[in-house]
Amino acid sequence: MNLENLSIEKIKKLDFKQLDDLASSMKEFMIDSTAITGGHIGANLSSLEISIALHKVFNSPNDKFLFDVGHQAYAHKIITGRASRFKDLNKYKGMARFVEQREGPHDVIDVSHAGTSIPIATGFAKSFLDNGTDSHAVAIIGDGCIVEGMSFEGLNYGVQEKFPLVIILIDNSWAIAPNVGGILKLTSGNNWENKSRGYFEGLGYNYFSEADGHNIKKLTGKLEQIKKIKEPTVFHIKTVKGNGLKIAEKHPYRMHYSSPFNRETGDGANPTVTGKTYAGEGADEIYKLMKKHKNLYVITPATPYSNNLDDLIKDFPKRAFDVGMAEQQAVGMAVGMALEGNNVFTCFQSTFMQRAFDQIYHDACCMNLPVTFLVARTGFAGYDSPTHHGLLDLSYLRSIPNLKIYFPSDTNDLRKILSERAQNSDGPMAILHQYEPIQGEEVLVDDRNESGLSNYENGDDGCLLVPGNVLNTAINLKQKISKELKKEFCIKVIRSIKPLPEKALFETLEKFDTIITIEENTLIGGLGSAILEFSNEKKLHKHILRFGTPDKFVNAGNTKECTAECNLDYQSIFDAIKKKI
Questions:
Q1: Is 317 exposed, middle or buried (0-12, 13-18, 19+ CB in 10 A)?
Q2: Does 114 lie in the same domain as 220?
Q3: Which of 2, 108, 338, 433 is spaced 20 to 30 Å from 577 by Cα?
């Protein structure tokens, strides 16, 4: 069958032999396609057959399919007529890596964070029940998402009424990395069905299970029974992550996500960006520090690859560990350990750390504890989703009392600040760094004075004030201003975002009439706002021009593409300022 002409109507007419053949064709297509573009192939091979069975039995979009976290919806996309879009995966404005409403009526939510499906499904189901609508809300949750706090809250409320709620628990024993904790104990072992049945039925759910989650006929038969019940029901299926892709067996994350790869040899398979990165340099330094400081601990919530922590977890298993897809647990545990005199580094992706805002605010910062938040992917962060960009980091973190915010000027600076925090963590600190690899020879800021504001290049006509991740933009902008406007601007790299380096900053603002700030952060409450606030407080009435991201969700894309979208490239900034200076 031509997959580009596939539809739900055609699926419903196929017998089980034809459906099995279709699944084989879809599997080959998904592997071949992501080998070229990169993609979340491991997770999607885990959910292939259940996606076919769901479309065979239920009726999307009248029945609402909510994929959690959304990176397991490739088969769903093919069935709903999007096979031709796979060639645009991991391209700017191409097919979403996850699920987004813009792609059509079968994608009912935007989702790139875990744990949202069950709570949102209860909202659909409550509406269906009250309105007498003959529809089901189907939460399709896998890859460790069931341990998210939102998932437990949804599970708790999902039995409050006789909601037409179906929860498909895709259980492959993995989140991104292997699952951990009590839910793993509940859902594994020879008696996993009895233990799980007792748990879910104890909560009030009808419980069905299937040990062969890749058998379309068995899955379809049980879904047909479930559809008739129209009450809260859990369908627990066992699957294999990366099923049918041989190289997934030896991959550290079973090919959860990979760059383009050779499907036979595995060449090129990598779960994150390659080359010299801040994450790699930081992990190397932390490894050295772990050997020297026995009270130093490292915690991450299910994303060890984003901070390159695999070697630490392997070599320091008692002091470096993954707590699963549970950001609030990561911070809460760090707080408890800090209260017992330990020094704790919690390593996040920016997009996921914001889910632990209350724990950072209420627990770590209110008690002024020595917890270090190492935050990868601040600023523009690639093709995952508009929500994966770290464009709110400066704004929301700056609002939290006691929290220091540090933005290293280069990887040497990152190593030094990590070393300082390992020796003496005085209160909480967030250390932010960029996602993409360092291109070419790294620009080093040698003037690392203790003020938190480093001079990079001199000039007397104005000042470009920037964090390290936009230093190259500032360098190009300075050259263009010099060439076309015959003005010489200095460049200063601000490393201490909070507290601001007040003495050095006051001297800078006092010296120059024109200050230009550039940041990969929303203009609302970001670095430029901090400089304006400081200038106003000190009664320094200067011409401060701020450049950052607008008040919108920026498309998924690489730094170059997102910079152009937000007019943050040096040419656009030059065009905007040339009439004003």
A1: exposed
A2: yes
A3: 433
What is the per-residue pLDDT across 518-544, written as a single tens digit (0 to 9) for each? 999 999 999 999 999 999 999 998 999
Token couple for 303: 């994303």
Secondary structure class of 456 (helix, strand, coil): strand
Kindly report, residue by residue over 20-65, the tens digit of the pLDDT: 999 999 999 999 999 999 999 999 999 999 999 999 999 999 999 9
Identify whether 447 is part of a domain. no
Nearest to 282 by CA among 320, 309, 303: 309
Is 241 found in the same domain as 117?
yes
**Among 324, 435, 339, 431, which residue's Cα sits nearest to residue 379?**
435
Q: Residue 282: which region, alpha, beta or left (left: phi > 0; alpha: psi -120 to 50)?
A: alpha
Residue type, 209: S
DSSP state string for 33-46: HHHHH-B-HHHHHH
Q: What is the pLDDT of residues 338-375, one digit of tens each?
A: 999 999 999 999 999 999 999 999 999 999 999 999 99
* Pairing, β 320-322 against β 296-300: parallel
Evaluate whether residue 266 is within a structural domain. Answer: no
- For residues 299 and 414, membership in a common domain is answered with yes
pTM above threshold 0.85: yes
State how far the Cα of 20 lies from the Cα of 222, in Å rounded to an integer: 17
| Bridging pattern class, strands 165-171 and 233-238 | parallel
Q: Which amino acid is at 179?
A: N
**What pLDDT, on a 0 to 100 scale, did the predictor assign at position 373?**
98
Strands across the sheet with 64-68, in order? 64-68, 137-142, 165-171, 233-238, 206-210
444 within some domain: no
Residue 466 belongs to a domain with what CATH number? Answer: 3.40.50.920
DSSP letter at 113? S
Structural domain range at position 374: 278-432
| Structural contact between residues 402 and 368, judged by C-beta atoms closer than 8 angstroms | yes
445, part of any domain: no
Map residue 347 onto helix, strand or coil: strand
Q: Which of 371, 399, 432 is the last residue of a domain?
A: 432
Please indicate, yes or no, whether residues 415 and 531 belong to a single structural domain of this protein.
no
Examine the pLDDT at 448 and tell me if it is beyond 70.
no
**Looking at the structure, do residues 423 and 535 belong to the same domain, yes or no?**
no
Burial of 580 (0-12, 13-18, 19+ CB in 10 A): exposed
